[in-house]
Design a protein that fits this description.
The complex is a heterodimer of chains A (316) and B (387). Chain A has 316 residues and is an alpha/beta fold. Chain A has 15 helices and five strands. In chain A, strands 2-3-4-1-5 form a five-stranded parallel β-sheet. Classes of the chains: A alpha/beta (316), B alpha/beta (387).
């Protein structure tokens, strides 16, 4: 436990012993740290299952009090271009490690968002500075990481945390913070978060500011308040041929919540699975179109024009 | 028709108006054997002065301007040899490198460095021109050159000059129109002379507002044609007549399409428009400009023939407000973003994830004094959270 005011940090495990799940992975990585030698590491797995936590624990256990000097943390989804690899990473890799440590660590989070170019640049850097620096990379999907990088790393695949792991973790928070939780609460937390512990912790902290009795209802009301509800209305307007109103609401929703075209698209896809008023034949046609539009946006098209084209498809 | 800007271009330095002091300074410094950097707004006579000087001094002029490839190799090819060689019949040379601030960052890479190198020991009289010499990238160049400033012209000198041209050309004028032209030129004599020539033909002064409005009318005419006609031949060349870029046309189409089309027609038309947009993205990405052909086809005839029904009504077409709304939202969301950035740092996550997964849940908690302290939120951010 740390003294952070934000619970995801406060309850982030600080040592290998603290980490609840991922037993096998923790064991193997701990062995590396005990020998004070390790390969480059690639941590792959869904959000909120402990990838960043393990990276931080490696640094803390290996470097002790000098960990902040010998550990560079970068988030690839914020700095995704080749310049980061060429400048920031290379600069850090070049300098010598401080204190009595065998090497420094560069932790590159969310590597899936690195461009292919940047990944290519990274692979040379990983080789050239291997005497002074180790890389810990993390990603959601290892398939998005180019083979040459994967082959230079030991890959650890994280599984979603088990119900028991999550229960342990939630109970620890509940005891420390004086919260009342029961089995049902935990089940609904797991349900809304798809096992993402970061999200669970945020929801819990959010609930605690309202009531120390954490009920199912409280959880669902908070989660739905934090998520935009307008998507369904947007689609219904489009289906009922009120296109201009539909796209107006679309733009307002995107701007109000600061959502990207892809965020919206994910929700449209989910809603399309649920809408009753369309035939299954139409449903599959629309979902196929969703995929096409998602591809185009990823490829660099204008998200608004593409989403409008999708909405035009919804009209009966 | 001979443009007056050419007809009345000064042949001698004494004919250049408004820069007398600067020209004297040039003439006095000629024997220093250093290159000159003439700087000042467009249309004040920078290039003209260099050319006039070459004639007065009996030098052969060698000019490099923005139409030449001016990367490192380009500059060396163009200038390297002529900087060293004596010219034919051993006439001296005057080298003019025009508009050095127009060197392109990507396509003219290394060009500035090559210029710096070549002017270190100039064998010939050398002039460089630019608008703003105080940009960082010119710092080395500034040290090596004699800086000569050309100022934007006073309104009265412009009016006097315009009067002379009017008398020469036997154009009737009244004082007020000349004042208006001079005012619009913002000290750019070339622009003023151009406007005067246009005025002498049309008898109207084209202010910027007016031309902006004309452009919009053109565009609306094209839009009307595309959205009302069903014929390929009537629409395929429609945008040839406007000067708007296709991107702007697409925004207009996007805004007004749903006013004219519905249901199946709307779906088909949006298919075309969104395909055009895909090509737009590919141009940006691959810099392959021939895709413009397909964009043009898709958004003209492509959209025109997508309809079965023509809307009998005539709705008013409007400019899109999306861009403005986007900008306003950006300003509004700036605080949300900066707070999320601070959350991201403390919680070892990305800005995007902090914005989506943490900020919406912790909005209330973020107002606690301890949290504010830990995240080092500033006054404006705290203010935003309280709203």
């Amino acid at each position: 436990m740390t003294d952070s005011t934000i619970w995801t940090e406060k309850y982030r495990p600080q040592t290998f012993e603290d980490i609840k799940g991922q037993k096998k992975i923790v064991e193997r990585i701990k062995a590396f740290v005990d020998q004070r030698n390790m390969p480059h590491i690639l941590l792959a797995g869904p959000a909120g299952v402990g990838k960043s936590t393990i990276a931080l624990v490696i640094a803390k256990e290996l470097f002790k009090e000098t960990w902040k000097n010998n550990f560079l943390e970068l988030n690839a989804s914020d700095d995704r271009g080749i310049d980061v690899v060429r400048n920031t990473i290379k600069e850090f890799a070049k300098t010598r490690a401080l204190g009595n440590v065998p090497f420094k660590i560069i932790f590159l989070d969310e590597c899936d968002s690195l461009t292919k170019e940047a990944q290519q640049a990274l692979r040379r850097t990983m080789e050239n500075f291997v005497t002074s620096t180790r890389f810990v990379l993390s990603c959601n999907y290892s398939s998005k990481i180019i083979d040459p990088i994967q082959s230079r790393c030991t890959v650890f695949r994280f599984k979603p945390l088990t119900k028991e792991d999550i229960e342990d973790y939630v109970m620890k928070i509940a005891t420390t913070e004086n919260l009342n939780v029961d089995k049902n609460t935990i089940a609904s937390l797991v349900n809304i978060s798809h096992g993402d512990v970061r999200k669970i912790t945020n929801v819990l902290q959010s609930c605690s500011s309202i009531d120390h009795n954490i009920t199912e209802n409280l959880i669902y009301s908070l989660v739905s308040a934090a998520e935009p509800k307008e998507i369904q209305d947007i689609l219904l307007l489009a289906i009922n041929k009120r296109f201009i109103q539909s796209r107006g609401l679309l733009l307002d929703t995107m701007l109000k919540h600061g959502l990207s075209g892809l965020d919206i698209l994910k929700q449209i896809q989910k809603e399309t699975m649920e809408i009753d008023s369309i035939s299954d034949e139409k449903r599959i046609e629309l979902l196929d179109k969703c995929g096409e539009i998602e591809f185009r946006i990823v490829e660099g098209a204008d998200e608004f024009i593409q989403l409008e084209a999708l909405l035009a498809y919804f009209a009966k | 028709m001979n443009p007056w800007t050419k007809k009345y271009i000064p042949k001698f330095t004494r004919e250049i108006i408004g820069q007398e002091a600067s020209i004297i300074k040039i003439k006095q410094s000629l024997n220093l054997k250093k290159p000159f950097l003439i700087h000042g707004p467009t249309g004040t006579g920078k290039t003209t002065a260099a050319i006039a000087l070459s004639k007065e001094l009996g030098l052969e002029i060698f000019e490099v301007n923005a139409s030449d490839t001016r990367n490192k190799e380009g500059i060396q090819n163009l200038l390297g040899s002529s900087m060293q060689q004596q010219s034919l019949f051993s006439k001296g040379k005057l080298i003019l490198v025009d508009d050095i601030d127009a060197l392109s960052g990507t396509k003219d890479r290394g060009g500035l460095g090559a210029i710096e190198e070549l002017i270190t020991k100039p064998k010939h009289l050398t002039f460089l021109t630019c608008i703003d010499p105080w940009e960082d990238k010119f710092s080395k160049l500034r040290k090596k050159c004699i800086l000569i400033e050309f100022q934007s012209l006073k309104r009265d000198s412009i009016i006097n000059h315009l009067k002379k041209i009017c008398e020469e050309e036997k154009v009737n004028y009244n004082e007020k129109d000349l004042q208006e032209i001079a005012k619009l030129s913002k000290g750019d004599l070339r622009a003023a002379i151009n406007d005067l020539q246009a005025f002498s033909i049309t008898k109207t002064i084209s202010t910027e507002d007016k031309s902006e409005r004309d452009k919009e009318e053109d565009l609306i005419f094209c839009l009307r044609k595309i959205l009302k006609s069903k014929k390929w031949n009537e629409t395929i060349n429609i945008f040839d007549k406007t000067n708007e870029d296709l991107n702007e046309c697409m925004l207009w189409l996007d805004e007004n399409l749903p006013k004219e089309y519905s249901s199946e027609d709307l779906k088909k038309a949006y298919e075309k428009l969104s395909r055009a947009d895909v090509f737009q993205g590919r141009i940006r990405r691959w810099q392959y400009w021939r895709y413009l052909v397909y964009i043009n086809i898709l958004i003209t005839s492509g959209i025109a023939i997508s309809k079965k029904e023509t809307n009998p009504e005539t709705p008013e077409y409007t400019r899109t407000s999306r861009i403005l709304k986007l900008w306003m939202a950006k300003v509004r969301n700036a605080k949300k973003k900066s707070i999320s950035e601070k959350i991201a740092t403390v919680t070892h996550t990305s800005k995007h994830r902090a914005l989506k997964d943490t900020y919406p849940y912790l909005r209330k908690i973020l107002q606690n004094p301890e949290v504010i302290k830990e995240l080092e939120l500033d006054e404006e951010e705290i203010e935003w959270l309280r709203k």
